[in-house]
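2024-03-11 09:14:02 INFO receiving multi-entity request
2024-03-11 09:14:02 INFO entity count = two
2024-03-11 09:14:03 INFO echoing inputs for audit
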Amino acid sequence: DIQMTQSPSSLSASVGDKVTITCRASQSITSYLNWYQQKPGEAPKLLIYAASSLQSGVPSRFSGSGSGTDFTLTISSLQPEDFATYYCEQTYSTLTFGGGTKVQIK
Amino acid sequence: QITLKESGPTLVKPTQTLTLTCTFSGFSLSTNGVGVGWIRQPPGKALEWLALIYWDDDKRYSPSLKSRLTITKGTSKNQVVLTMTNMNPVDTATFYCAHRRRSTSGWYFDSWGQGTLVTVSS
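2024-03-11 09:21:47 INFO inference complete, emitting structure
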C-alpha cells in the first residue's frame, strides 16, 4: 500500500499570507496526486488534480506542484474562506488519502 | 450538473450490517471513464477511502476493510450500494459517495454527496 504523509498537520496563518502544504508518498506516484479542501460540516471539494491542474472554478491563488514522491499545495495569498482542512490523495495505486492539514487563523 | 446523495440508517447496532445507497444524477455509470466511490470520515478525523465501482463493473476495495465491504450497482441505474458487515462503534463516521472521473494522470473525485452520519451503538 502507498502511504501519504502530509505536513504540517496544522498551521496558523494570517489573511494575505503565502501558505505551503506538503504531501510525501511512500513510493513514486509520478503525477497521480490530487488536493481537496474541506470546511467544517461540508463535503470535500476538489482543488487540484494530476498534481498541478486547477479544477474549474477554483481560484488561481491555489496551485500544485511536484512529481515522484514530493508534492506541494500553495495558497499564494490566504483569504478568509481558505481556512479549512486540506487533503492530498494518490491515485497511482487505487487510492489513499493523506492525514490532512488544518489551516487555522493566526 | 452532477449530484449525489447518500441514504441509509443513521444508527446501527454492533455486529449488524450497514447498507448505504448512493443515488445520483447528471451522469451515467455506463459511460467509459466514470466511477463512484465511498469514503468515510470518523468525527474529527481524516478521510478514509472504502470502495470504488467503475463503469465496466470493476470493483476495488480498501485492503484493510476488504473482507467487510461489498459495492454494487443498484437495481436502479442511478444507484450504487455499499454494504459493510460486522459494524463496530469505531465505524461511527460520516459516509460520503462521490463521482470518480479519469484525468490525464489518474482519477479524481470531482463531485461529492453531502454525507450521512452513521452511528454504531447498542
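2024-03-11 09:21:48 INFO post-check: Chain B has a mean pLDDT of 97.
2024-03-11 09:21:48 INFO post-check: Chain B is about 0% helix and 55% strand.
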